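## Example record

The block below lists the input lines for one assembly entry, exactly as stored, with component labels intact.
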Amino acid sequence: MRHILRRREWVADEWRYFGEALAHGDAVVVPLAELRSEPQRWAAWPGPLGVRLSAVDRLEDLAADVARLALIAVEFPSPGEGRGYSQGRLLRTRLGFTGELRAVGAGVRQDLLFLLARCGFDALDLAPGEDVAAAQRAFARYDVAYQPGSPALSVRRQRYFAS
Amino acid sequence: MYRYDELDQAFVDARVAEFRDQTRRHLAGELSEEQFRPLRLRNGVYIQRHAPMLRIAIPYGLLSTRQLRKLADIARRYDRGFGHFTTRQNLQLNWPKLADVPDILAELATVQMHAIQTSGNCVRNVTADHLAGIAPDEVDDPRPYCEIIRQWASLHPEFTYLPRKFKIAVTGAAADRAASEVHDVGLHLRRAAGGELGLRVLVGGGLGRAPMIGQVIREFLPLTDLLGYLEAILRVYNRQGRRDNIHKARIKILVKALGIERFRELVESEWQANRTHATRLPPQEIERVRAHFRPQPYEILADLDASAAREPQFKAWYRYNTRAHRMPGYRAVFVSLKAHGKVPGDMSSDQMEALATLADRVSFGLVRATHNQNLLLADVPQRELYAVWRELERLGLAMPNIGTLTDMIACPGLDFCSLANAGTLDVAKQIQERFDDLDYLHDLGEIELKMSGCMNACGHHHVGHIGVLGVDKHGEEWYQITLGGSATGFTALGEVIGPSVPKSEVAATLERILEVYRGVRLEEERFVDTVRRVGLKPFKERAYAPHPAAA
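Predicted structure tokens for the full assembly:
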């Protein structure tokens, strides 16, 4: 069974990803394209619903769905792909999403955890092979920051604040 | 200068510890090169032709003598006893060992220095006018705003993995000595009609393969909106900038594709939409940082005729290597890192230490790096100039060539860089040798020669009055020459004069071009002004003509 790092805890994942074996009523994360092509099926889904965004998905299109979604997964497919950080920030600050914001993909590694958490990600589906204990320790690498950031990783001292 | 507070120091110390752990994991095989690469780049470590290269940040070029001594010490203990000052006012070490880099960074942290974001696709070292704070033509000192941007950009959670590198320059003067129009973002301090200080914002300038001049996106931005507006620009860029092709990923390509009007609409609407979440820059924070850049405790002095009754060598140095200062009785002194026979921008540890001693005595213990790869003693009493000259002479740092042809910019080229197509350092030497006669050099007057070993344009060849670009032709090094570029005030991109020339012919070709100039120039007319007036044609005709002796 898949485990994820939710805040600082290594927990069994109760969510199923689209394409995995699915029972009626399961909590399921479906790609945005799937949500759009089968709107009725997913509107009627009896269990918790999440959506998975790729780096090129426009999240402005998601405004109407946010209230219905319990989880949004954002893809970080490679170490250099940085669009997801803006997506995370915007989901939290502009769309007011308060559910689980999960980073997924091969780019989700302990060395980016600070950035991800400061952008509002509170769950990480770590890349295969990542050392879980090291990732948990990585939450403590920085206890100061210059920029405003999500309470998903709070710091003891910060220079700049949001309006 | 800016002094770290507890937050700054805690941040840099945490960064050192993090990179130590990342380096250990990489060397232990736990982090592949692909995984380690973006991490090391954001700490200034490149893997070059021969060895790792470490690029140390010198924010907006300002160094205390304590920091300069530390750089000298590091270069001696971890490298080969010299460092290379770059066009971004940074210092590069060309031969450190990767395993030593965490220790070097720890040493830098003890003097409030680092190598954070000197490479990689993130916001790079913010550069400024090297005469900031002392220039007579300045509205306000740009360095506090550079420092604010430096802090805000450090490990920015949203903008550390941009499509491509991002360079910002700030100037507060009428003359643009920071090449701000060829930066991703250029900021010009200015006063509104009511006296309020703000910024003109340019976006989309840059050199490289597709050189472009920045365009004004906003004529006047209140200072307190600086960070919020930068966030809007960077967010639009981060989301919409191309990531499919490294050569089309700079913000200039996005600005060009959308057009400045459309790009402006996107930024302004993002800025408005983000109002309640934008990063605030409160006036008291601006004041806190500004307080670190107060004018020096100058003596009340009168201007002297410092060159009266001195030898001609001193007079030449005074004329070429010193500049006017806002305060009577003071001058700014260039420390030329362009001695003939030396690599432009290189400085030995011994020179650094001796210069630190001199700066402690005559220039308030501060030294500046310029984007022309020289150093500057900014605040020298005129009565000390003769002694300063003697000492710089002794150190090999008084070549009276600032602003002349041999005060050239050159990237490290094929000798060090793994991207280069052709050498630059031996061409620089060839040019230094051919133009070694100081009277001739001075007669040619103000000329900016800029040389790059590949089209990535680290040597800024597009904006040189004379640009030299190394190209690879079937495994041989050839050089393309451009004329008429400029990055100071009247920004223009140079035009190619014709086919590239073989390595052995570069200096001779330049000499033929400059002979045309000597023939047609008007009195006191600079080379670049002659090129603008008469066009390229006469230069083209002569550049490729066989040498009279050979004809």
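The two ends of chain B are 59 Å apart (CA to CA). DSSP finds 17 helices and 21 strands in chain B.
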